Amino acid sequence: MARNHTTIYAALVANLLIAVIKFISGFATRSSAMLSEAVHSLVDTANQLLLLLGIRNSKRKPDANRPFGYGKELYFWSFIVSILIFGVGGSVSIYQGIVHLRNPPPLEDPTWNYVVLALSFLFDGSSLVIAAREFNKVRGDSSWWMAIRRSKDPASFVVLFEDSAAVIGLLVVAVFVYLGHLFNNPYFDGIASLIVGALLTLVSVLLARESRSLLMGEGISNDTQKQIIQLVNKDPAVQGVQHIFSTYQSPEEVMLMIMVSFKPDLDTEDIYDAIERIRAAVKQAYPLVHYIIIQPEEAAVKK
After folding, report:
1. Could you give the strand order of the β-sheet that contains 289-296, starting from the edge strand earlier in sequence?
2. How far apart are CA 275 and CA 109, in angstroms?
3. Statement to judge: residues 40 and 125 lie in one domain
4. What single string gives the DSSP state of each residue in 136-163?
5. Where are the transmembrane segments (predicted)?
């Protein structure tokens, strides 16, 4: 998946503006649901900053301490983002909801809340449209969920998840604020906070699952492995591919190790030439493969 910073910057600006507006409204109207939404937007703002930090750090050149580069910095910060969504966004929202249900304040004029919700929906909705449009460009024929599972760029789907949760959360808060004043029942506001907290918790779990998989060393797909094996087997010096290992160092860098058995009549120079041919062929066919280790290995004996 190609990296595009447009979605991150759009979400950053939108969430920062929304957080300020929601905090003002929440304190003015004493709405726990609105304060929960404000915390949610503030956490999302911090998340975008962390993603940008991860992207910047991942582009650092390899050095003596990190000979394969710093690409996995992005995966690390994406995992931190998922923890923040739960630890701050979800937990605070659930806490606010419980406090509100125990001691519900009297209902205030909801007009300002509706104005804030409308503006927030406009900003978050615009950010979601941008994120969805950019992600749609690279997902191909895959379904949205399958494209997210296959994506090796968390910066693309983290914003998509966050904006989707934000829009759904706004709809929940709007409905429950309306119901609270319709039935003159302040408990609806606390229930909305609990729902927003549960929503954020669910999103954090999904993001943590995807980020953890990448951080732990997710490799290329089985189909790509089969294609590389076929490519290597075409070389006249190759007897067969014994094993293939891979891991994504970053969304744009793959480390690949191929254990190859060469024909027994080849000398050292022939094997060296074959290794260079294979390495060049794989890099040409798969530009994301930056590091290729080809290890000669005796063919497995069939029993």
Report:
1. 238-250, 253-262, 289-296
2. 74
3. yes
4. HHHHTTS-HHHHHHH-S-HHHHHHHHHH
5. 7-28, 34-53, 74-94, 114-136, 157-179, 191-208
Place of tokens 């304060």: 35
Q: Does residue 234 sit within a domain?
A: yes
pTM for this entry: 0.79
Q: 193 and 249: one domain?
A: no
- Residue 283 contacts residue 256 (beta carbons within 8 Å): no
DSSP per residue, 18-48: HHHHHHHHHHHHT-HHHHHHHHHHHHHHHHH
In angstroms, how far is the first alpha carbon of the chain from the final one?
A: 43
Q: 78 and 165 share a domain?
A: yes
Residues 6+ apart with CB under 8 A from 18: 41, 119, 120, 123, 124
**Could you read off the pLDDT of 269-294 as tens digits, one per residue?**
999 999 999 999 999 999 999 899 99
Q: Is residue 45 part of a domain?
A: yes
Q: How many domains in the chain? A: 2
The encoded tokens of residue 44 equal: 């999302």
